[in-house]
Amino acid sequence: MNIIVQKYGGSSVGTTEKIKRVAEEIKKSKEESNEIVVIVSAMGDTTDELLELAGAVTNKPDSRELDMLLNTGEQVSIALLTMALQDLGCKAVSLTGAQLHLETTSSHQKARIKDIDLSRIKKELNQGRIVVVAGFQGVTDDEEYTTLGRGGSDTSAVALAAKLDARCEIYTDVEGIYTCDPRLLPGAKKLNHTSYEELIEMASLGAEVIHPRAVELAQKYQVPLYIAESCSKAEGTIINGNIDYLEASLVTGIAVNRDDIQITLRDLEADSYILAEVFNSLAEAEINVDMISQLLDKSGRMNLSFTIPEMDIEKARELIAFYRKDWGVSDWWIRSEVVKVSVVGPGMRTQPGVAAKVFKLLAQSEIPILMVTTSEIKISWLVPAGYEEEAVKVIGYNFGLTLEKD
Ligand code: ASP
Ligand code: MG
């Protein structure tokens, strides 16, 4: 029989009504003679609410205890979904990450998957059950509960699909992958098909439909992905294979990311070792740096700006306060009202001029630019918050990312 892994995100199981509807969908897939493994996220905003609860008790929650708390979110949704399936006459069982032995590293809230023991899942599938697995959860080899990081259920789903050699269907609250978030770019087109590479770029830039780590994993193990709206007949987006450069579009999409902040350090000694130390200490604190720009001034000192996730702001503050004397930083600041607008397109690799055209469009719209980075198939601009909609529209309309207007 054909095994299919289906993942339903928090918004798809946000209420008991929605859970019942999802159960109907799963029942239909099961009836098409498939073996079904379902991954679910916590209901709606549960994970945020749990974090808020922790925050109301302490502003420095212990990371082990935080994972004890966060694990409860998905445990609720797997149990309810399983009950709803049973109510429809389906044989089903729910399993937590620990029951599955979804083994991870011990780094709480950022655990990485080491291996998944398939014996329990196989046993349940063989008995004709639908297996409902808690996304996001893992367990260490000494039985400590972990979580995979925000949005981690996508990674759970793809990892399971890879192990089971199955196709992975991600059900969410939008119809698939769009050239841009239609809330920002009215008329944005839905893509019927795209490559792992393009989706990795779009997702890591904050396209929000699927976690980039999950797409990387899918690419690594060549897991076919299908992203679609839950409980809808609309055709979703198929993701498999790599970019076909002959057919590639100049620009595939635009992504907007509001999760980063910009930090500027002034007057560092212009010395590569200092730079290495700055980024090394950030890496040791597990802070991911994204955009970087470094400017030398006439006196031989340098100013360094970089962006990091907003959630790491306190860690970064402490770290800079601790090291600033060693690094020679005279002054530093954080700019949190920033947005990164990125243009992704495989055609950039072979055809020049995309950057030039975007710079011109941004200039014509008087959009200030704080930082720029480029890679093979992507260019990103950091702009002050509030300018992103204008930027997206002007780029989207000029690169044909919207449906034709008639
Ligand atoms: N519930 C977790 C979160 O909100 C995991 C997920 O939804 O993927 O981040
Ligand atoms: Mg998600």
SSE topology sketch:
Elements: E1 2-8, H1 16-31, E2 34-40, H2 46-57, H3 63-87, E3 92-95, H4 97-100, E4 102-104, E5 113-116, H5 119-126, E6 130-134, E7 137-139, E8 145-147, H6 153-164, E9 167-172, E10 193-194, H7 196-204, H8 212-221, E11 225-229, E12 237-239, E13 253-257, E14 260-269, H9 272-284, E15 292-296, E16 301-309, H10 313-327, E17 331-335, E18 338-344, H11 354-364, E19 371-375, E20 378-384, H12 388-398
Parallel strand pairs: 1-2, 1-9, 2-6, 3-6, 9-11, 10-12
Antiparallel strand pairs: 4-5, 7-8, 11-12, 13-18, 14-16, 14-17, 15-16, 18-20, 19-20
Helix pairs in contact: 1-3, 2-3, 6-8, 7-8
Bound molecules: aspartic acid and magnesium ion.
The site of aspartic acid has 12 residues, from loops.
Task: Please estimate the helix content.
Answer: 25-40%
Return Rg in Å: 23 Å
Q: Looking at the structure, what is the overall shape?
A: globular
- The helix count comes to 12
**What integer is the average pLDDT?**
93
pLDDT < 50 stretches: none
β-strand amount? 25-35%
Lateral arrangement of strands in the main beta sheet: 3-6-2-1-9-11-12-10
In this structure, how is the largest beta sheet organized? Answer: 8 strands, mixed
- Helix and strand content put the structural class at alpha/beta
Annotated CATH homologous superfamily of the domain at 2-173:
Acetylglutamate kinase-like
**What is the quaternary state of this protein?**
single chain
Protein name: Aspartokinase
Keywords: Amino-acid biosynthesis, ATP-binding, Diaminopimelate biosynthesis, Kinase, Lysine biosynthesis, Nucleotide-binding, Transferase
Organism: Halonatronomonas betaini
Family: Belongs to the aspartokinase family.
